[in-house]
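During the reporting period the student researcher (J.K.) took over the structure-prediction task from the postdoctoral fellow and processed the backlog of single-chain submissions. One of the processed entries is reproduced below for the supervisory committee.
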Amino acid sequence: MFTISKKIHFCYGHRLLNHQGKCRHLHGHNASAVIRLESVQLDRLGMVCDFADIGDYVKTWIDQELDHNMLLHRDDPLLPTLTQAGERVYIMQENPTAENIAKLIFDQVAAGGFPVVEVTLYETESALASYRRD
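J.K. obtained the following C-alpha cells:
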C-alpha cells in the first residue's frame, strides 16, 4: 500500500452551540488539514497522486469555503446578524467541531475522486481530530 499526505493551512472562526466552556464564544484558529491518500497501485508516473493536484484541489475549496470564514451550526442564533452584516459564514449541519470539520474536508476530497483515507484537522498545534472511513 502506498500513502501520501498533503498539509493545507487556513484560518477559520467558529463557536460551539450548547458547549459549557469557553468554546461557546466566537473565536478563531490557525488550522492545518492533513489529507492522506492511499493506493495499492501507482499511476504511470509512479505516484499515488501528484502533490500539486491534491494540493490545488483542496486549497481552492478551502480558500473558497472555509478560510477566513465563520463556521457555524445551522441553528446558531447569530447567523442572521452576521449575514446581515455581510460577514462570511459557512453553515454546517452539525456543530463545527474539529471532528466535523475533518469529515467535511474528507467528504469534499472524496467527491473530487481522490483516494482519500483520512483527514486530520489540527485545530491548534496540540489539538487534532481525524476522520477516516474503515
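The committee noted the following: The mean pLDDT is 97.
J.K. will present the remaining backlog at the next meeting.
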